[in-house]
Request: fold
Amino acid sequence: MKKIIFIFILMLLVPITKVKGFYCTYTEIAQWKKIASNVNYFYEYHENNGQVTFDITLVNLNKDIYFVDSTTEKKHEFTKGEIKLTGYNSGDTVIYTFYPVNEYCQDEPLYTMRINLPTYNQYYGDKICLGIENYSLCQKWSGHNLTYEQFVKKVEQYKESLKKEETDDEKEDTNSTLNYIIEFLINYYYIFIIGFALIFIIIYIVRKKDNIYS
Reply:
């Protein structure tokens, strides 16, 4: 009798916990993980007065899973297979963590989706970028923390480096041509010697004939 009372007291003192192995099988978890990893996304942006915001759309959602947005800490339960979330900023790293709806396993993370949004370059359309649009600092999506003055200085330095490269290329072309001529003369100098000798002989013979008939 005492033993039964002791067990009863022990049961009252020890909280009853959910046993994942009993309520939530590994087969179910594997199935939910597969469903969660099948979720895909795409994003679009809105540009306004030099600022950009992003909308992210998740597709292939399923009634057996929900997710939490780490940016807002908001829980999103299933309503339909697609959902659009708005108001993200340029350069944000958005993390969605998916969980099963099953009440015994709903704290078990199934899959984490990480989305790195591109960083918007508000100076990309500046007139100083005219003609060098492929330069990294002149592209629409370019991560930097430069002020406008620093940006202009960097771009001007890049332009100067291009001019120097063009000058160096021209010098290299000139040197290459000169080296080719010198190399040709060194390798085939005997042809020129023979040619000059033949010309000299022909001139000598012609003059000698002229002297004979004069």
